[in-house]
Specification:
By secondary structure, this protein is α+β, with helices and mostly antiparallel strands. The protein contains 7 helices and 9 strands.
């Protein structure tokens, strides 16, 4: 939304500077319209002050998030740009696009998660209501979810076949919830989390009384990770 303020001073430059100081913005971030050039008069007699209208775009959470991510990418030496979209319940989704997104994703999405975490901290600083931030690039999140679902079913099959618990690699809360959700109705196995961050892992375990079998589904108990909808 475009807003404006008007200022007057002895010169145009002074009036513009007063507006910038009040807004806390720089000259490149605003548009200036000269309403009155002003006159010095004769020994001050008949002097008319200069008057300007300074227009600016009111910052939005999505705009702030985009500006932060774009600046972060620039400092990382990555040629990319964030494109904001509005998700459900006011969630802000940023899709980063560029030539080399491997550096943005990082090892198993670690860099992407770090960017998302830093952006969330920045955007929510000083705000009463928490704004959820989701950052993705090249559909990585969906691909990772599919990969984790395949892994979960594969580990469940091994648990049933060998009657032996399987402990997965360390995962963040979001990825652990995918494992729990995928196996919550898988007959014969249950899941729980163990360890502390950042090395917290999901254990796929044989459900008590289960026998080796190839298929079938039944609702399994949920642990704390599955019940929570927010990161630990």
């Amino acid at each position: 939304m475009t807003k404006f303020i008007e200022k007057q001073a002895s010169t145009i430059d002074e009036a513009v500077q007063q507006a910038l100081d009040e807004l806390g913005m720089d000259r490149d971030s605003v548009s200036v319209e000269v309403l009155e050039k002003g006159k010095t008069g004769f020994f001050g007699i008949g002097a008319v002050p200069a008057r300007v209208r300074v227009s600016y775009e009111e910052a939005t959470p999505a705009g702030e998030a985009k500006a932060f991510v774009d600046g972060l990418l620039s400092r990382m030496g990555i040629n990319g740009e964030a494109f904001p979209m509005e998700g459900e319940d006011g969630q802000i989704i940023l899709d980063i696009r560029g030539e080399d997104m491997g550096a943005v994703i990082g090892r198993r999405g670690d860099t992407l998660d770090a960017i998302q975490y830093l952006t969330s901290l920045t955007i929510n600083r000083g705000k009463e209501e928490h704004i959820r931030i989701a950052i993705d690039t090249e559909g990585y999140r969906a691909k990772r979810e599919e990969s984790l679902q395949r892994l979960a079913r594969k580990m469940a099959g091994k648990v049933l076949k060998y009657h032996k618990n399987m402990t997965l690699e360390p995962m963040n809360p979001y990825e652990r919830r995918i494992i729990h959700s995928t196996l919550q109705d898988y007959k014969g196995v249950t899941t729980y989390s163990t360890g502390t961050e950042p090395n917290r892992r999901v254990v796929v375990a044989l459900e008590r009384g289960a026998r080796p079998q190839r298929g079938g589904y039944r609702r399994a108990p949920r642990d704390r990770d599955r019940r929570r909808n927010t990161a630990e």
